[in-house]
């Protein structure tokens, strides 16, 4: 790999990382797991003056429980997340989605926070974070602030993380007892999602009491399929009922057209995959 | 002597672990890019982003003054030195081709063409400085769509006056190998069946594992070139011819090479540029491409439109086949570009007894990366077409696809059989391979399941795909190549050096790049000369060591190179006989050789091979007239091709809701003749089958309307991994080849040739109830889904005899609903 030349800084604390960012000009890139940034640098699609590597900032790693939330450090790798029983039990949709990310090598290097800040709408972490109504903890020179997932994803490759700021943690409310499933549609397994649907539902006495549906790659950001959620709630967890509710899965979406499929095909996929995701999440 | 048979177990047929694998798999070996020479400079190419443009300005000043830069060379700098890249296969006398400079001089003809090279002390300095080369382009209209290019709407090379490079025909009536195809078609139109179809072979990228790399050391008496190539001997000859350097001043080394699939059967502009840079600077120079460069500038494969007309009687007996091909050359003719589609000419008739046949091929230039050999080279295209057509014929007649094949194939007792394309198939047993494949596959049970799924309208339908293929391997008898206007012969060479200590060095003129020749050549020598497998060292790929050879491609190494080795081994034994006779005080006529031992007929007197070799080495007491060495070599020109065949069966599940295709089971029963090493054969089949499946389902080199390669990285060029495939069931029948002593037929391309139509046939078979007749490759979920949807819209229409499409001028039948065709990126997909 031969990228264009850049300065390299590898701070060992969050404070130093923020200081390094403050000290940099506009053309600075933050390196987390490098699974998106390195290919971009290698192909010289971006030529930052400085790269701030968060790989040695230990305080950004790890998964902890805080009251009603699970707190995931931004530098936690996919593999670490997959190994977490806490996440599996209380935010199962994340586990389901992350086990579908690319291949084992990438899951050992890539980080949850890095993927979220990169904000590729085809990435597999955004939709579950949105569906689980997580909060994103952003730290900057002025201190720490928390934004809801709905406000975090702003556009293609754009998030609420401002200049000089870092995403430091993801705070996921416990969804204990919810069923979940991530239905990812790809042509080859190591590919980005053509479309994927993350569903997590709470079933009570055969009825869907609560439902959250996140859509991957159906627009410039991850999306919630709220029309589907509304139609599901209160209804039975049956094939027919779920099928009917999921017909609205593509409502309000604006999916891309590319080599893997035109937007109308993606809209169609969203309905099929939503149905499959919800039924699997409900254990039907 | 005891009565116990204490001979060592035969090496041939043993699943020996590959002796080369430890170094290849760990990478602790001599890949070209691992070479570091004193004073070595590194190259970076500046490449055109445009498909077709005039170079109006080129400023290298900033690059030349960048840190570490030693030189920047442009086309203008080297135009009197670089010659023109050569095409070794002018298929017709009047074949047209543009000049092919290694560095473009005033015009670029495809996106990715080299316009300048930076020579610098480090690879990073070269890469950084390459960004500083300022090129002004004036864009020209580009010929991108193959059909439109064939109509000369826009010219890929304006000075050529046309995009048509050549037209080539084989006609069985003219050749005296069959009847007139048009008569057969006319007759079938009145009282038989005519199937007319148009298929597209999409453009593929060989995508070998090791990117191409070349090092040139200009110091010393001989110019030494290391290259990650399949063809070091070709590189030597063509470096001499293109650059006007005496061949005797060139040494080419292909060290360990990480795959090729035909993609490294080339003499490349990058090789020429590296030589030019090394001679210009007087320093060793290295160029290693990035993966992105490899995808855009290493040659591509396939890319044809195939118009096919099959004539048959009402009962499904084929009476004629007419083939009209448009073959995309891309922007230039590479080493064997123009001949690739022609290799298919002999294979469209496949395993069948067609009484008439005509093959027409028009080679067309476009402003895209040039095409050339890719695993199978012309034969997968032919096999796909005929195996798809035979399925269509079966539907038309209303019988099982295996039944229609059996009705038309060459029966076992009919071998040797001369086909309508003029090839003589020496041996085969299609009945046995097919019967075994059906049994392993559980054919009848799967057909029952298919019917059940249809009956209950299961959203996941089951399709069964058949491919009964053959191929011509063992390239090639030199007289045939001569008749086809190929510039070289097709022989192969081997040398055996019997070392004084009893070890053996084998030199082969083939050039392995992952196949396992070192193992198999050792197995052959172990059996033939009775020396331990471990004592054989196989040398290759260096023109100073393997001075004669025609390299590795076209499943030729074992069939041709292996036979050369057998002949050389026979000579070793012959040279050993008089030495042994002298040692044993017997007459030469009484000396027998078996199991590594020379013995006197009817006695227990004998000498081991090692003893005889030592005697020849010391030469202390040899009678006059005996040459004191057993070293031998042999050059073998094959008398004919070999014809492996097989029956491949594929079951695929098609999710009609999403269009997703999942393989359910895959069985191959191949007849590759006598198997030297079953493990290596399994490896070739597994890899080949996946590569063929990849054409059916996943891979395509897609260009946008500007002529930019969109699938220019592995993000978009979707290569499969093991996780995308299933476990295959592979078995074999053995009909030994009669054209070489090993009985081998070749296996390098079989899987890739056979599997593509098996998969597409399975998909179409699953969707027959929807009226789907074809899905264009790669059969992406979207294409399958659209095929179902658009065919569904026609369901209400009554099907009549006239629903069978016919070719009308300018109206390809594929474009109607149900074909899965979509207009995409300026090209009809």
Describe it.
The complex is a heterodimer of chains A (284) and B (829). Chain A is of the alpha+beta class. Chain A folds into 3 domains: 7-54, Uridine Diphospho-n-acetylenolpyruvylglucosamine Reductase, domain 2 (2-Layer Sandwich), CATH 3.30.43.10; 63-173, Uridine Diphospho-n-acetylenolpyruvylglucosamine Reductase, domain 3, CATH 3.30.465; 179-281, CO dehydrogenase flavoprotein, C-terminal domain (Enolase-like, domain 1), CATH 3.30.390.50. Chain A has 12 helices and 14 strands. In chain A, the strands form 4 sheets. In chain A, strands 4-5-10-6-7 form a 5-stranded antiparallel β-sheet. In chain A, strand 12 and strand 13 (207-216) form a beta hairpin. In chain A, helix 10 packs antiparallel against helix 11 (239-246) and helix 11 (239-246) runs antiparallel to helix 12. Chain B has 829 residues and is α+β, with helices and mostly antiparallel strands. Chain B has 3 domains: 38-378, Aldehyde Oxidoreductase, domain 3 (Alpha-Beta Complex); 426-471 and 643-829, 2-Layer Sandwich (Aldehyde Oxidoreductase, domain 4), CATH 3.30.365; 491-636, Aldehyde Oxidoreductase, domain 4 (2-Layer Sandwich). In chain B, 28% of the residues lie in helices and 23% in strands. Chain B contains 22 helices and 30 strands. In chain B, strands 3-5-1-12-9-10-11 form a 7-stranded mixed β-sheet. A 5-stranded mixed β-sheet of chain B has the order 7-15-14-13-8. Chain B has a 4-stranded mixed β-sheet with strand order 18-26-27-28, with helices on both faces. In chain B, strand 13 (301-313) and strand 14 (318-330) form a beta hairpin. Chain B is globular and about 85 Å long. Chain A binds chain B through residues 2, 4-5, 39, 42-44, 103, 185, 187-192, 194, 259-262, 265, 268-269, 272-273, and chain B through 123-124, 127-128, 131, 290, 292, 657-658, 660, 697-698, 702, 710-711, 713, 715-716, 718-721, 723-724, 780-782, 785-786.
